[in-house]
Design brief:
Layout lengths: L6 H11 L13 H13 L9 E9 L2 E3 L8 E3 L2 E8 L7 E8 L7 E5 L10 H9 L3 E5 L15 H27 L5 E7 L1 H12 L6 E5 L5 H14 L14 H12 L36 H12 L1 E2 L6 E3 L17 H6 L8 H7 L14 H10 L10 H5 L3 E7 L8 H14 L9 E6 L17 H10 L6 E7 L2 E8 L5 E4 L11 E4 L7
Length: 529
């Protein structure tokens, strides 16, 4: 599929037709003059000529509260130039995006692209605000459609391509040109930040367009799109009867989590209420089987059978080859009160999550019966038809050659996307690059025990991975640990180091086990004593 103008050609064209504006000197202009010139420069961006891009509005926004479109609460922002634009790289594409730029005095020289969530076609104003307050110019896009449902893909294959990867790329190209025209130079460093679908977009950028960003932060990447959709379908069928009624009462999910933690908490030598690495957990849910009448404190045979199928994942019925990994012990119901459990993605939906991606994108049939799925034939057809929906290329050598750095992270207790999916991917990267090219030189993965999907969970789950990424890109100092904390009423109650995979954090045996300083990052199986 075409992706619009190539980066080099587009930059060359713009450099040829657009003059570089002269940035005013703070020492040469009074306050009123600076404000007038800034407002004029921002408003004039509507006259930019960029192939396949139209700037629809450019407005200087004063510092203070700013209410984004569709929001009820304001964001507190510094003064900035807000650019609203649209790009149409191919017929049937219509990709809206915004670019926010701080004042020249506040700009760090950094540029940031921010990711989306789910299949949602919405600009991420909250993430843009965070980047702007960080001193970065920032862009976000609606990925070429409106809303979070999937009807937009029926009969519109180019819009599906836009969502899969093209929108992020052409937005990055156009946004950096807008920054260059307004600020007088291209960004010194460019970063992409996203989690979940944003993590998928992050890895797609690293794999497909290695020159777009210098640093990429990919959280809980939802990048195995086709197999994940098949996995959701299989898990839904395994946990619902013919009438679509859940086989496991959601109120019993915390039973599974508590039993799993009890069985595997001490696997890492420390009883702290966390499963350090669920892949090593030998939890048998049969310990919960009812011995007589069913009660709220035990599971019936049918409930246990359904749970086992979720743990087992999806395999080819004919070959036994894995299609999508199972959900991990500890992910079942820890965050029920916070909206993170198997209930939200597996049990509650009246039909399998995102099954429309198969009906609309693959079979182009809104009436497609998901119960008719052939796990071999239909899965192979889906990969052949829309394989570009996924971003699973393990050959990251072009990204390394471009000088890029990537930090990935994922929660081990994620109830939406099994954390083992990203460790499997990273292991394939290691294998693809070979022993002479260790990915730790440019790509590091940090697994977070007890964290749910992008946030939440019983483990330390609040951390800053962007600052270590910026330091790595800009100074060459690779992160050998990232400190995470459990925040209770605004106070860090427990801190732990997150270690670059495959290393794990181990308590030294002295000092408080609630403080990160008393842990070391070691190889699996080693001790810190």
């Amino acid at each position: 599929m075409p992706s619009g103008f190539g980066r080099a050609g587009l930059v060359a064209l713009i450099l040829a037709v657009l003059p570089v504006p002269k940035l005013f000197s703070v020492a040469q202009a009074p306050e009123a003059g600076r404000a007038t010139r800034a407002e004029s420069s921002c408003a004039n961006l509507t006259t930019l000529t960029i192939p396949q891009v139209r700037v629809t509005r450019a407005t200087s926004v004063a510092a203070g509260p700013f209410v984004p479109p569709g929001a009820s609460r304001p964001l507190t922002l510094p003064s900035f130039c807000r650019v609203e634009a649209v790009t149409t790289p191919v017929p049937d594409s219509l990709i809206n995006f915004e670019v926010w730029m701080p004042t020249a005095a506040a700009w760090t020289g950094r540029f940031q692209g921010v990711g989306n969530g789910g299949y949602s076609g919405a600009i991420g104003y909250g993430a843009m605000a965070e980047a702007l307050n960080h001193g970065s110019a920032v862009t976000s896009t609606d990925i070429g459609h409106s809303g979070g449902e999937l009807e937009w893909g029926l009969g519109h294959p180019e819009k599906v391509v836009d969502w899969a990867y093209r929108a992020m790329h052409v937005t990055a190209e156009a946004a950096k040109l807008i920054v260059r025209n307004h600020m007088g130079r291209f960004p010194s460093y460019s970063y992409f930040v996203g989690c979940s679908s944003g993590g998928h977009q992050a890895m797609s950028e690293a794999q497909r367009y290695p020159d777009d960003y210098d640093g990429i932060l990919a959280g809980d990447p939802d990048f195995d799109r086709i197999n994940q959709t098949l996995g959701y379908l299989a898990m839904w069928l395994a946990t619902h009867d013919e009438a679509g009624k859940p086989l496991i009462p959601s109120a019993k999910l915390p039973l599974l989590t508590r039993a799993a933690v009890a069985a595997c908490d001490a696997d890492d030598g420390l009883k702290d209420g966390l499963i350090d690495d669920p892949r090593q957990c030998r939890f048998d849910p049969r310990v919960l089987q009812c011995t007589s009448a069913s009660t709220d404190s035990c599971l019936t045979k049918s409930e246990l059978d359904a749970a086992r199928k979720v743990y087992a994942g999806l395999r080819s019925p004919s070959t036994g080859a894995p299609i999508y990994p199972g959900w991990l012990p500890g992910s079942e119901g820890f965050g029920e009160s916070a909206g993170q459990s198997w209930r939200q993605m597996i049990l509650d939906p009246p039909k399998p999550m995102r099954v429309e991606a198969l009906g609309y994108f693959v079979f182009q049939n809104p009436a497609w019966d998901f119960r008719s799925i052939d796990w071999d034939r239909d899965a192979e057809y889906a990969r052949a038809r829309v394989g570009y929906l996924s971003a699973m290329d393990s050959d990251l050598r072009p990204f390394k050659a471009s000088g890029g750095k990537v930090i990935m992270y994922s929660g081990w207790a994620d109830p939406l996307l099994p954390g083992i999916d990203i460790t499997n991917y990273y292991d394939r990267v290691v294998e693809t690059l070979g022993p002479a090219n260790p990915p730790q030189d440019f790509a590091r993965l940090f697994m977070v025990p007890g964290m749910g999907h992008c946030q939440g969970g019983p483990g330390p789950n609040t951390f800053d991975a962007l600052t270590p990424l910026e330091r790595w890109v800009e100074t060459g100092a690779a992160p050998d640990r990232i400190i995470a904390s459990s925040v209770v009423k605004g106070v860090a109650a427990r801190t732990r180091p997150l270690c670059p995979y495959p290393q794990v954090a181990r308590w030294t045996g002295s000092g408080s086990s609630e403080e990160a300083v008393n842990f070391r990052c070691v190889a699996p199986g080693a001790t810190a004593r």
